[in-house]
Structures are given as C-alpha cells and as structure tokens.
Amino acid sequence: MWAYEQTPRNECGYKGYLPYYNWPQWADNPKGSPLLDGGERSISGDGKYVPGRNYTCVPNPNRCFVQVEAGSGGGCVNSGPFKKWQVNLGPISTLNTTVPLNPSPDGLGYNARCIKRDLSKRSSSETSDKDVTALITGSANISAFQSTLQNPEPGKLRVHLGGHNTIGGDAGSDFYNSPSDPYFWFHHAQIDRVWWTWQNQNLKDRRLTIAGTLTFQNAPPTRNATLDDVMTMGDYLGFKNITIKEASSTLAGPFYYIYE
Ligand SMILES: [Cu+2]
C-alpha cells in the first residue's frame, strides 16, 4: 500500500496521500459514497445495469458460503474518470462469468477490456460499524484478528471479503487480479487503518506480532512465517525489500504515517 502511495508522489508530483474508503459510513448505500457515486471526483461508480443475472457464489463456486444476489450493476462502469480505463491483465480467478479468457494460461497476457462492477448491498452490509467494532474489540491476538477479518464461513463473508465484493465485477471479484480495479487500494487502505487501530489498543503486545504460515491458507503447507522473513516488491518497482518486522510499525522507516 505504501509503495502504491509513493509511486504517484515520486513519478507525477502528487502531493497528497492515499485516502481510505471508510466502509461503515456507506455500508447501507455504497453508491452514495463520494468514492463510488460515479461523479468526476469519484473513482467511477457502478457498472451499467445488466438484468436477469443469477446469484454469485462467494468466495467461489467450490465454497459457496454466501449466494450473493445480483447487485445494481454488472456491466462496464459508464461514468466518472475510469469510464475509458482498460484492465489488461487476467482474469485469473474471477467470479464474473462474462470476462473474456486471457490468451496466456498464467493470466499475464494482454487482455484489454473495461472495468465491470456490480455494487452489492448484501456484501457491503458486512462492513458495518457493528462488524468493524466487533473485529477491533473482540480480537485478543493477531490470529483471532486475521480470522475474524478475512475467513469467510457459511452465511458470512466477513469484513475483508465484504469490502471486496462491495464492487464485485471484473477485476474486483478476482482474487488474484482485484488490484487492477483502483477500488482495491482504497479498500485495502481501510484494511490497513483497521489493523492500525487494533494495534493501537495495545501497542506493546500488538505492534510486533504475527501468525500463520508462508502460504495463503497454508496451501501448499509451509512453515510458520517469522518477523524476520523478507517481503519483496519485485525489482522493477524500485523499492527495497523489507522484513515483516520493519513493515509492522507505521511509525518506523520507511513509512512514518498515522491515520486521521
Ligand atoms: Cu483484499
């Protein structure tokens, strides 16, 4: 997130910061938010409404924990600054059934297309004040915090997935390619802010703490991660590798930020 924020500052003279999307404020009406209202200062809004669609299995058809009914869009975003934006990578694991396949099996071939969104009140309803407060006050350690934040279960998307699926669509519903929709960065800035808020309830015990293995959902099985494991950004971005320990405090280098 920090590297993403740095890039327009370093390359384009942007003086601002990366704003967060405060889900609870718009949980009952995401389309009413300044971020997603489709206006000139938004990041574009809903997709064009496509009638007659079925529900979507979230997180995926093999684990159909929630049947999310079709939302208020479904097609290409048709107003605001990203109206003509092209998504080029993927799809890799999209839940949207109308996306043309990528010419390369790894999903990294050129596949230019519009951004599709399907704003979903069912999904945003799991990012309410009640949900976020319960996450922050009810998670005694980082393991509990992670599970409550991001492990869906039958009938429940949880806050992280609820926030992602608030826009759904393409690339938003694609586990691996969701950063191709700019919404990702505003959503994940809020994830970072909620984690930071949780940390600050007990900085002594929560600033440097970690749980889980090196692989997502431990597949394939790997050892537990440690604070000394290194995070890489790839050489092409020009950011130094840092350890998880170095990345665990927002008030240490290279970050130095707080949330307002
Ligand atoms: Cu995410």
UniProtKB/TrEMBL annotation:
GO terms for molecular function: metal ion binding; oxidoreductase activity. PROSITE patterns: TYROSINASE_2. Residues 181-192 form the Tyrosinase copper-binding domain. It comes from the Eukaryota. InterPro entries: Di-copper_centre_dom_sf, Tyrosinase/Hemocyanin, Tyrosinase_Cu-bd. Keywords: Metal-binding, Oxidoreductase. Pfam families: Tyrosinase. The keyword Transport does not apply. This is Di-copper centre-containing protein.
